[in-house]
């Protein structure tokens, strides 16, 4: 179960009622929600949020900006339903760690649900909200740029990838390095072979000259 569900529900009601005061929307948690099994009439939306985790075994806490939240949305006027699943993460240090539920700040919840309502207006009402999409905060950008521990991320383990920017950079940069050095070695070794050939020619010419001189000297 997600922590602070009351806060999620209250925040969602406040934002959606501002936009659609005559429609009744409900937000519910569904831990069995999957990306691939979307039912007809439902729209899907995934978002990443910033949250804190605490390991229940060792007490270590960590912050992740790659906490995946999956939403399903369905409108049958005047009623609307949202199902959400928040994906958990495991502690890196404990080998027998359990998946821990994320803890979002009230500002984080506000931001996530603000984006969700913009998506509801777009996908269910075909309205462009006109509202600016909330900007990423600097801390989130730094954390997104950091490596993502896919082995301890529930979303990654069930097949919803959370690619991080730095992961991409590393995988692209690594094969290039030996390739580049090989490219620079090739002209150098060719030059070496040419020099060896040239010096060999000089030696042969010198030997032939000496032999010729010796022969003519003898004659
Ligand atoms: Zn731990
Ligand atoms: Zn992941």
UniProtKB/TrEMBL annotation:
Has UniProt tagged this entry with the keyword Zinc-finger? yes
GO molecular function annotations of the record: olfactory receptor binding; zinc ion binding
Task: Say yes or no: keyword Acetylation present.
Answer: no
Membrane association type: Single-pass membrane protein
Q: Which GO terms describe its biological process?
A: detection of chemical stimulus involved in sensory perception of bitter taste; protein insertion into membrane; protein targeting to membrane
Which source organism?
A: Sarcophilus harrisii (Tasmanian devil)
Specify the 3CxxC-type domain's residue ranges: 48-159
The record's GO CC annotations read: membrane
Q: What is its main location?
A: membrane
Protein name, as recorded: Receptor transporter protein 4
């Amino acid at each position: 179960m997600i922590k602070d569900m009351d806060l999620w529900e209250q925040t969602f009601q406040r934002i959606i009622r501002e936009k659609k005061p005559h429609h009744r929307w409900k937000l519910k948690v569904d831990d069995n929600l999957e990306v691939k099994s979307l039912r007809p009439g439902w729209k899907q939306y995934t978002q990443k949020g910033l949250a804190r985790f605490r390991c229940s075994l060792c007490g270590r806490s960590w912050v992740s900006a790659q906490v995946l939240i999956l939403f399903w949305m369905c409108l049958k006027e005047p009623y609307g339903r949202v199902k959400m699943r928040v994906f958990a993460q495991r502690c890196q240090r404990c080998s027998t760690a359990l998946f821990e539920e994320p803890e979002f700040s009230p500002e984080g919840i506000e931001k996530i649900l603000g984006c969700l309502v913009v998506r509801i207006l777009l996908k269910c009402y075909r309205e462009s909200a006109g509202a600016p999409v909330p900007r990423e905060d600097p801390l989130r950008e730094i954390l997104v740029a950091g490596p993502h521990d896919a082995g301890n991320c529930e979303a990654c383990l069930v097949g919803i990838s959370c690619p991080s920017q730095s992961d991409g950079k590393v995988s692209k940069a690594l094969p290039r390095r030996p390739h580049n050095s090989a490219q620079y070695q090739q002209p150098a070794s060719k030059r070496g072979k040419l020099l060896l050939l040239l010096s060999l020619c000089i030696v042969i010419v010198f030997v032939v000259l000496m032999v010729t001189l010796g022969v003519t000297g003898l004659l």
